[in-house]
């Protein structure tokens, strides 16, 4: 009787031990699968990281190429602007080819001016006396007198200021508007710009050979 009971308990113990071994093996296999999946995931993440690094390097190269292309285009545009300016200087068409086309955007930018009238090389004659202005532009409450020189000198600033004093004498139709004087050229020396600023005359020329601009707007506004 006791032997039978003992055998039964041994069988139960063996059964429990087998169940424990089975569960342990099952857990071990699950851990092995998880480790394998983690290893695979780690490998995929490493590959993804390498792909991202490669993509980043490609984008960097592309960005550098675009910057290089942009610089080359800027240099090419500057070269063309110089050639066009030299040709206009030789042909005597600085007003028509360089200054006049830039007036509308420049006056809009700096003076909030929607040009109503724009004329080039306007000649007025009163009592046999001629008075010619290279360009005239008008807005609601402003009139612009634009004088242009191919090679600007400090003395030109004084001459333009003196000439401007008689503007309304020859253009009485613009009386009541504020007269704004612009001295236009291809390029302008620093001493000319400084002298013009002191006399409240705006200087218009190429800015870094990229676009026509007012070079001393802030100086005069101060």
From TrEMBL:
InterPro entries reported for this sequence: DUF8196, Restrct_endonuc-II-like
This protein's UniProt keywords: Coiled coil
Residue ranges of coiled coil: 10-79
Domain DUF8196: 123-207
Xref: Pfam families: DUF8196
Record protein name field: DUF8196 domain-containing protein
Upper classification of the organism: Bacteria, Pseudomonadati, Nitrospirota, Thermodesulfovibrionia, Thermodesulfovibrionales
